Amino acid sequence: MKYTNENLKLAADTVRCLCADMVEKANSGHPGAPMGMADLAVSLWLKYLNVDPRNVAWPGRDRLVFSGGHASSLVYALAHLSGTGGLSMDELKTFRQVGSRCAGHPERGVMPGVEVTTGPLGQGLAMAAGLAFAAKHVKSDNRTWVFCGDGDLEEGISHEACSWAGTNKIDNFVAVYDSNGITIEGSASLSMADDTKKRFESYGWKVFDCDGHDFDSIDRAYRRAMKTAGQPVLIIAKTDIGHGSPAKHGTSGCHGAPLGAEEVAATKTALGFDPSKSFFVPDEVYAMFSDRADAMHRLSKRWIRQNPQLAAATLEPDYMDLVKALPKFDPAKSEATRSVFGAVLNALAPVAKGIVGGSADLAPSNKTYMKGAGDVAPGSFEGRNIHYGVRELAMTSIANGITAYGAGLRGLGATFFVFSDYCKPALRIAALMGVPSMFVFSHDSFYVGEDGATHQPVEQLASLRSIPGLLTFRPADANETAYALVEMILHTKGPSCIMTTRQNLPVLDGVRHEGVAKGGYVIYESGSQGSDTLLFIATGSEVSISLEAAKALAAEGRSVRVVSMPSVELFLSQKCEWREKVVPELMKKRVIVEAGVRFGWDRFRMDVKTTRFVTMAGFGESGPYKELAAKFGFTAEHVLKVAKEIL
User: Fold this and answer.
1) Beta bridge partners of 524
2) Phi/psi at 49 (5° precision)
3) CB neighbours of 80 closer than 8 A, spacing ≥ 6?
């Protein structure tokens, strides 16, 4: 179908009215951005965006991301008009209500066609960079489009992600900047004086300008963007927030509040619509979107026929293949679990071919480099090793975008554990989306030593464990590390992370894959197991010192048990029978040992008088790690002393 400026305007104005109606009925939301972006969005959807509303998971589709998730009503209006997910008009009327697919900010897995969950500004832009890279990596010819606004570009993550995308010349990536000059507090000039064009040109982007309400100008910008090679593209589209609203357009008053019944009516009148009709769509607008959907469905079927390998691509490994590939470890050789992780990753990488990623400039320390797998470089995307640079937050979001792309890809990111604070906003979004990105955090405690408290994580482990849906592993030795990585690869319902040590740890007896897979297990016990048993619960490097203390007590005839708990949340998710078998309620004498804050461990306390904690009560300190261990009480001798206090 050939679209004229007149029928494009009718479609865009229909979208404006639908968005205004949704926000008004909900008495909550953001009408300004959707109304301002309607011309840009309708033009893209009807003329350039290759998506199939009848097959939203078509692998060859373009990816469209609304980084400003507050423009959600625009997403749902487009979905309804195009038939995406069968979103009905009645569902539009449930916008922002409990149980509705039309959530306040679009959510992956809730509304079909939503590629990633955006919300915190800037993350959508960074995840879009990951989506675009993933397409280049699997040699698909689709394009990633992202709508972003002033808030996205003010957030620091945009600098990180866009610099990375420009450096790597990701040229299937187009960002449309809704430059309306308005933020919640008023004019964007109150806080932003950047020359956006020069900024992005300095990143290596190609930059075009357009009038976001002139369809000819929009067309020229889109066509030029699609012809650009060797660079990502930014289109700076000058728009009017709340476009169409006679009294509130161009003001912050329409950013995050309903227009009001009188202004909605005035807007509809100004746009040539009947003010007495709500949620109204002209038949010719439905026809336009239906014709486009028919064309895209034919395109998707043709693409699938012509690209059978890409259409059926899956890189998910088999469990037994992973287990067979695991390296063996010398029980007489102590080794840092970060080094072990590197060896295991390289052993499993040829089997788990979907793993793509790297470190925030720390691969030699994190041991995340996959040997022989090739490097991602400017204009070269086949390698599996990504150099993210010192960009932890963008790295995490880009990894999420890579994973969200599909095709069995698993985005991998790595840094020092203390810097997980920079990653946490994107870890949270990964958990919310349920995408199985993988993260490696080395140097997992005060054992970093001489670098001092600024580089010694204390509260970070408790913080990550508090995120619903995030799976964490803190392995005790080489074998637990190997089994943990296998479990991370097999875990496809959400993100996972592993914490590894800088210092060497002994290879332990009694480590079992089943125990790691269930989060916690008995690694050692001696004597009759009952109410007099002294139970040690430990993770990571503290398992070995707990074992030493327990064995000293066993030599004195005491009944002891040591539980290694590499994944607290995985253990707590097991059936009651397993939890009771490993940590019986009758064993009330307990010593809990972890080189981090106590927060979260009280759930394992059975009795105030008979439970002791060997944990961190403050920050770390600069010095040799063995001296710090003695000072903070993380020695077998101190753990034994604490245990005897209970006895």
Assistant:
1) 562
2) -80, 125
3) 18, 87, 88, 89, 91, 92
At the top level of CATH, the class of 517-646 is alpha beta
pLDDT at 130 (0 to 100): 98
Task: State how far the Cα of 560 lies from the Cα of 556, in Å rounded to an integer.
Answer: 11
* Token pair listed for 25: 């009925």
86-111 pLDDT, tens per residue? 999 999 999 999 999 999 999 999 99
The CA angle 409-414-416, to the nearest 5 degrees, is 165
Query: What pLDDT, on the 0 to 100 scale, is given for residue 313?
Result: 66
Task: Note the pLDDT of residue 308.
Answer: 86
- Reported as a single tens digit per residue, the pLDDT across 513-549 is 999 999 999 999 999 999 999 999 999 999 999 999 9
Q: How many CA atoms lie within 13 A of 437 on its CB side?
A: 34
Separation of alpha carbons 13 and 468, rounded Å: 41
Domain boundaries, the chain: 5-306, 319-505, 517-646
Which pLDDT belongs to residue 637? Answer: 98
> Would you call 392 a catalytic residue per the annotation?
yes
Q: How far is CA 24 from CA 75, 154, 185, 249, in A?
A: 16, 29, 22, 16
Question: Was domain 319-505 assigned CATH 3.40.50.970?
Answer: yes
What is the rounded CA–CA span in Å between residue 534 and residue 265?
Answer: 73
Superfamily name with CATH number, domain 5-306: Thiamin diphosphate (ThDP)-binding fold, Pyr/PP domains (3.40.50.970)
Q: What angle do CA 41, 43, 47 make, to 5 degrees?
A: 125
DSSP string covering 439-488: EEEES-SGGGGGG-GGG--SSHHHHHHTSTT-EEE--SSHHHHHHHHHHH
E strand or H helix that includes residue 265: helix 261-270
Weakly modelled stretches of the chain, pLDDT under 50 = none
Q: Note the Cα 380 to chain centre separation in Å.
A: 24
Among the options 263, 392, 487, 594, which is catalytic? 392
Which pLDDT score, from 0 to 100, does residue 75 have? 98
Distance between CA atoms of 59 and 161, rounded to whole angstroms? Answer: 24
Q: What is the pLDDT of residue 1?
A: 67
